[in-house]
Amino acid sequence: MCYESAFEDLPRKYRALGADFLVNITNDAWFGKTTAPRQHASHLILRAIETRMGVARAANSGISEFVDPMGRVYAATKLDERSFVAGVVRTTDVIPLYVRLGDWVGTLVVALTLTGIAFLVKRRFRP
To answer: 62 forms bridges with which residues in the sheet?
Structure first.
């Protein structure tokens, strides 16, 4: 999983199929010294929280880290710093509702919004 960490559906699917943790091996060198490597790494915090899985991330140009299922980062390296990190991936066997049911909250909000708009339009044009 590399850039795919930005998309929530893949880790959710992996967890539903029995994955215990995520491994993110990435080439962030092409981002240079921008904020993008930090942003890319921050996506994994969300994936860890959503799926309640631990994450191990290895990046060739920095920000290698571990993330626990609550989104806490530990043993992180700095950007463009040559280093070696070894650790234990902290994970859990909890399967959250988000993994079991999918992205139903977003779908429900869209459906309720469209229903509300239809109700307001109907009420506006009532004789």
So the answer is: 79
For residue 37, the tally of other CB atoms under 10 A from its CB is 21
Structure tokens at 31: 């981002």
pTM of the model: 0.81
pLDDT in tens, 9-31: 999 999 999 999 999 999 888 88
Residue with structure tokens 């215990």?
20
DSSP, collapsed to helix, strand or coil, labels residue 73 as strand
Copy the structure tokens of residue 67. Answer: 């993330």
14, 5 in Cβ contact below 8 A?
A: no
- Are the C-beta atoms of residues 51 and 99 closer than 8 Å to each other? yes
Contact 11, 22 (CB under 8 A): yes
Question: Which token pair is 51?
Answer: 């799926």
Q: What angle separates helix 36-51 from helix 9-16, to the nearest 10 degrees?
A: 40
Q: H or E segment at 107?
A: helix 104-124
